[in-house]
Amino acid sequence: MKKWYLMALTFTCFALHPVPSEAQLLKKLKKKLEKKAEEVVDRQVDGVLGNDDTAGEDHTGEERSGDPFRNLPKTVYDFVPGAEIVFQDDFSEDVEGNMASRWTSNGTGAVETLPGVPGKWLRVYPENTYKIKDLMPMPENFTLEFDMLTRADNYKDLGTPAFGFDYNKGVSKHYYLADQNPVNADLSYQFGKLNFTSKEVGSNRKSSEMDFPMSYFANDVMRIQVQVTGSRMRVFANKYKVLDTEMVDSESKKYFYFASDGNEHSRIYIGNIRIAVVGK
User: Fold this and answer.
1) What's the CA gap between 183 and 212, in Å, rounded?
2) Which one, of 216, 229, 223, lies nearest residue 270 by Cα?
3) pLDDT tens-digit profile of 192-231?
4) Residue 48 contacts by C-beta under 8 Å, 6 or more apart in sequence?
């Protein structure tokens, strides 16, 4: 009697808790592998890329590890800095904790040093726009270079900092809508895009937008390089060409600005600014 009771109990257990079939096991295994693959991709997207200082390198979109440009069209790095420097600032002469002496803003800023990062940096605060105090209008043909350094646990907190050129020498207010200025570039960490706009060419506002892996450069240094010759403007982000078209009126007076974004959970810095004259 006991034997029959055990057999019935065993049968009941199997009926209530059936052993997964081979198809079910494969389905679960597939889901786990897909989840792991997504985690790996997310880590790569949110990772930090070190700068590559090889001048003249072509970013060909090769599938090499850690290359943020692998899915973008091929471009050639052919930036040549101007030889005649009209402005240069690395904040080496400024006192830490104070606003940079050669710069102005609608609010505040502070020169800082960061662990593991060479040199001094100007911390640019949210809802503040920055300009060079005594700079004359940009030359007709020029190059502009600067570094942008960021710190954030979540790269989306960095928002959309911007830089560009307008017709006002000073700063009376923050440029919340910087893309309404004569020539502007939005660098959106939040949306992973670059957007360039101009009111200086043609009768209508000109705009150029592209997807760009800004998250790769969070918590790192991005080198921005601009070359203007006549009406043509070329822009490079970490040696990848992101703009090459007519964007400026060579006869207009233009003043450089940097409009910070982000929030209390992020920090944005600029440094190593260099402006130089170039020939046509």
Assistant:
1) 20
2) 223
3) 999 999 999 987 899 999 999 999 999 999 999 999 999 9
4) 216, 217, 218, 219, 220
Take residue 191 and report the two structure tokens written for it. 């949306």
255: tokens are 């003043």
**Cα 132–chain centre separation:** 22
Q: Kindly write down the DSSP assignment for every residue of 221-253, as one continuous string.
A: EEEEEEEEETTEEEEEETTEEEEEEE---TTS-
Distances in whole angstroms, Cα of residue 25 to Cα of each of 22, 28, 37, 39: 5, 5, 18, 21
* Closest residue by Cα to residue 81 from 60, 102, 55, 103: 55
3-state secondary structure of 2: helix
User: Based on C-alpha coordinates, what's the Rg of the chain?
Assistant: 26
Please name the residue ranges forming H helices in 122-198: none
On whether the CB atoms of residues 161 and 260 are closer than 8 A, the answer is: yes
For residues 117 and 129, is the Cβ–Cβ distance under 8 A? no
Q: How many helices (DSSP H) and strands (DSSP E) are in the chain?
A: 2, 17
Residue carrying structure tokens 């920090």 = 267
Residues 6+ apart with CB under 8 A from 219: 48, 150, 151, 152, 155
Q: Which residues contact 96 (CB under 8 A, 6 or more apart)?
A: 110, 111, 112, 113, 120
Query: What is the reported pTM?
Result: 0.75
Neighbours of 64 (CB within 10 A): 9
In one letter, which amino acid is 227?
Answer: Q
Give the tens place of pLDDT for each residue, 3-17.
Answer: 444 444 444 444 444
